[in-house]
Amino acid sequence: MDAKQLDKAELAAANINPETGLATDYLNHFNEVAMLIDMLESMPDMAEEILEWQPLSYPEHFNNTGFRAKDLAIKAYELCDKDVKKRFDEACQAVEISIGEIQVILQSGVEALGDPTYWSKQLYGLIAAVGGVVNPNGLGDHAVGIEEAAVSGEDQSAIDALFD
Predict the structure, then answer these.
(1) Can you give the residue range of the structural domain that contains 97?
(2) Reported pTM
(3) What is the pLDDT of residue 143?
(4) Residue among 156, 47, 30, 151 nearest 97 (CA)
């Protein structure tokens, strides 16, 4: 059995991509730390929370959240196509490595990080690459370099509006 044999309507209703078997809810685990990094300039005390951040596996994330269809999300992930899962796991690992690098720098103090938005933009680009594996959109799941990761002011305004 693979994820494509699960009920597509049930997966879609649960916000799980019926084709990949993956849910974008997992991206919240990364988006939270990226937003904290964004806030560092005006709220340097967020450094402590960033330093406390730890990677969570896909199943761990869903077991620790209030996601209503967590069992289905975990099952779909476990049944996910092995190539999709490999690309997903590699993209997630790139985000985790980047966050780890930021944490190492941040141990020397907020000022050691320089411009926090430089780092958060890099993270948002890497997170977008993970999203490209979850929900392929024609761009695929190509790796996003620092230059490509920059979020324009217009794009950031749209993202900020979602949280207002």
Answers:
(1) 3-162
(2) 0.80
(3) 40
(4) 30
C-alpha span between 109 and 112 (Å, rounded): 5
Alpha-carbon span 94 to 85, nearest angstrom: 14
CB-based burial label for 162 (10 Å; 0-12, 13-18, 19+): exposed
Task: Indicate if the alpha-carbon torsion angle 34, 105, 115, 139 is positive or negative.
Answer: negative
Burial per residue of 21-60, b for 16 or more beta-carbon CB atoms within 10 angstroms, e otherwise: bbbebbbebbbebbbbbbbbeeeeebbeebeebeebebbe
pLDDT at res. 127: 97
Q: In which residue are the tokens 């869903």 written?
A: 62
Per-residue confidence (pLDDT) for residue 116, from 0 to 100 = 93
Nearest to 33, CA basis, from 54, 62, 57, 4: 54
The tally of domains found in the chain comes to 1
- In angstroms, the CA 159 to CA 126 distance is 16
Q: What is the model's pLDDT at position 5?
A: 77
Structure tokens at 155: 């794009």
CB distance 40 to 92 below 8 Å: no
Taking only the tens place, the pLDDT of each residue in 57-93 is: 999 999 999 899 999 999 999 999 999 999 999 999 9
